[in-house]
Amino acid sequence: MGVRNTPGTRTGVPADLAEVERLAAARLPTDVRDFIAGGSGDEVTLVANRVALDGVGVVPRTFAGVEAADTGVSLVGTRAALPVAVAPMAYQCLVHPEGEVAAAAAAGAAGVPFTVGTLSSRTVEEIAKTGAPLWFQLYWLRDRGLVGELVARAEEAGCQALVITVDVPVMGHRRRDVRNGFALPAEVRAAHLVAGTTEAHERRDVGSGVAEHTSAVFDPTLGWRDLEWLRARTRLPLVVKGVLDPLDAARCVGLGASAVVVSNHGGRQLDGAVPSVTALPRVVEAVAGAGDVLFDSGVRSGTDVLRALALGATGVLLGRPVLWGLAVDGERGVARVLELLRAEFAQALLLAGCADVDAARGLATVSTGRGAP
Fold it and tell me: Which residue, among 140, 214, 141, has the nearest Cα to 177 in the 3D structure?
């Protein structure tokens, strides 16, 4: 990865995702690091996500007779080499000049879907040239015509699913960004929202330019009728991201969603929201096989992927670690992150006595700590 003599590593190559994060944190400006790492409010939910994951104990099976595990799976109709997709994340050119193009290329090489964000700093057309399997994430915008235009662009670019994020009627109060007066540098922009992005670049003594921009362009009145409108508008499988309530999840699939993502936005929206992994089993029960149930918020290892599967998830979305890898070494850094996750997950399957992903969903779990299911 081009990193040498790094404290905590003997070879200069990170041995786990925590080391990748430490390397990235040392390289990034404070305001950018805080923009990525931070949560909302007192960051209670940000911390609780990790505590709750650590509190999930998996009960391994023995006498499995498994020599090699198959990590492949279908996620919302997309064939993937791992039960993992890269989560939608904004403004990736903040951490590397190639941004989303580099991250998507690494995801494609690893055989996992890459989710292009509405607030991507490279366009879906540019990213599609990597040949990676793509999903497109949609925020609900005040300009309904622009929503329709983005859906059409995603379809034309060959995206295989449409992901609508529903937990950002307004941006959570992210105190790190407010203290830093965070704003985008001139060279980084929301490539799909070329017009009306001035607010995001205006640095303040106290306050967040990105939050001001979000307030200006996002529509907080998103409701069930809008989901029905979107379902009728696109031929793509529809994924609803940001669901924690079982009743909401059941209604989403009842209205034609192919999947839901159990997510509290990585602790960046409602502070005090339930940890995603705590909400996961009840959402799985409510969906009852009528659609895929994906999980995100706090995934940091192959063991975390195993935990989510054992609790009934179809797969997980991987967020911040991808940005840390991108910051460290661009496409090669993201490739290293995904390879670490692949190796850890394959070993976790074997240690749990599982020949494949389906077997992992049959594992029992116990609560070993606070906040666990």
Answer: 214
Please enumerate, as own/partner, the contacts of 287-290 that have beta carbons within 8 Å and a separation of 24 or more: 287/249, 287/250, 287/253, 287/260, 288/250, 290/250, 290/253, 290/254
- The full set of domain ranges for the chain reads 17-59+71-355
Residues 273-294 pLDDT 10s: 999 999 999 999 999 999 999 9
* φ, ψ at 84 (rounded to 5°): -140, 140
The catalytic position among 96, 192, 213, 265 is 265
Distance CA 215, CA 168 (A): 10
CA atoms within 13 A on the CB side of 282: 14
- Write down the CATH superfamily of domain 17-59+71-355: Aldolase class I (3.20.20.70)
Q: Which candidate, 32, 15, 8, 7, places its Cα nearest to that of 327?
A: 32
Find the distance separating the first CA and the last CA of the chain, reported in whole Å. Answer: 37
Instruction: Give the model confidence (pLDDT) of 331-365 as tens digits.
Output: 999 999 999 999 999 999 999 999 999 999 999 99
Q: Is 96 a catalytic residue?
A: no
Torsion of CA 270, 53, 309, 363, to 10 degrees: -140
Beta-strand (E) ranges in the chain?
56-59, 73-75, 78-80, 84-86, 114-116, 134-138, 162-165, 238-243, 259-262, 292-295, 315-318, 364-367
Our separate counts of H helices and E strands in the chain read 14, 12
Q: What does pTM read for this prediction?
A: 0.94
Instruction: Decide if 312 contacts 277 (C-beta within 8 A).
Output: no
- Beta strands 134-138 and 73-75, pairing class: unpaired
